[in-house]
Amino acid sequence: MNGILVHLMRHGAPREPGLMLGHRDDPPTPTGVARCMLRAEHLAFAQVLSSDLARAKVPARQIAHARGATHRADRRWRELDFGDWDGLSPHDLDPSLQAAFWDDPDLCAPPRGERWSQLCLRVNEALCGISRDTLVVTHGGAMRAALAVLFGFDHRQIWAFEFAYCAVLSLRLWPDGEGRISAAQIVALDGGRL
C-alpha cells in the first residue's frame, strides 16, 4: 500500500505578523493568499481541509475552488490557543513567563491558554481522520504538533522546526485500519527548515 499523501501548508501572512496569534481570527493578506495558491499548484490532493480561522480558511477555500476539490474547515487544525497572550507582541509579555512557556509548554501554558499536549491530541485526532490524499491549510504550531505525534519529537526538539508563511510539509501516512496511524514518512519540506 502506498499510504496517504498529506500536505500541511502554513497559512499565508496575516495582516499583523509578529504577534502571538493563536485563536484570534486575523484575516490573511491578499499576498499571503496568492502565495498559498501558488504553493498548491503542483501538489496532488483529492480534498482540502483547513483550520476554521480566516488566515487558513480563506486560502484553503480559494485553492479548493481553483482545483475543483471539496473544502472543509476543522477546528482541530487551529493554532495553539495563547489565551491572555493572544494578539500580543512577544515583547509585551513577561520574559520569565514566556521563557517558562518555551521551556515547557505543557506545564507552563499561557494564562487561560491551551497546553501543548491538548494541541497534540486534537491534531492527532484530525490526522487519524484523513483517508485520502489531502492538503491541510493550517498553522505553524499545528504542523509542529503533527511532527511531534507522528515522529515522537518532544517539546524542546519541536521548536527547532521552522515553517515560513506558506511553507508546505508533505507527509506519507499509513493508517492501521483501526483509527490510528501505524507509520509515517516525511516526503518533502518546501519553505521551511527541519
UniProtKB/TrEMBL annotation:
It comes from the Bacteria. Pfam families: His_Phos_1. SMART domains: PGAM (SM00855). PANTHER family: BROAD-SPECIFICITY PHOSPHATASE YOR283W-RELATED, HISTIDINE PHOSPHATASE FAMILY PROTEIN-RELATED. This is Histidine phosphatase family protein. It comes from Novosphingobium clariflavum. The lineage of its organism: Bacteria, Pseudomonadati, Pseudomonadota, Alphaproteobacteria, Sphingomonadales.
